[in-house]
Amino acid sequence: MAFATRYLENGGDMYALQQILGHTSLEMVKRYVHSTTRKTVPNFPKYSPLDNLKRA
Fold first, then answer.
1. pTM of the full predicted structure?
2. What is d(CA 52, CA 6) in angstroms, rounded to the nearest whole number?
3. How many CB atoms are located within 10 Å of the residue 56 CB?
């Protein structure tokens, strides 16, 4: 699970992740997306290009 989460956090595509892990459906991959979202959503304004433009 650590690989999948890190892969998605670093911009990996969930469809590619499905193939890398050998899952036949996206249901399992959605679990990784959910855990990644919990980590990235609170930090989104910090890394958002548009939010950073407004601050500049």
1. 0.57
2. 24
3. 4
One-letter amino acid of 19: Q
3-class DSSP state of 14? helix
User: Hey, what are 55's tokens?
Assistant: 């601050």
Could you give the CA distance from residue 51 to residue 36 in angstroms, rounded to a whole number? 21
What tens digit of pLDDT does each residue of 20-51 get?
999 888 888 887 776 665 665 566 666 667 77
Higher pLDDT residue, 55 or 7? 7
Choose among 42, 43, 31, 33: nearest CA to 8.
33
Question: Is the C-alpha dihedral spanning 13, 34, 25, 18 positive or negative?
Answer: positive
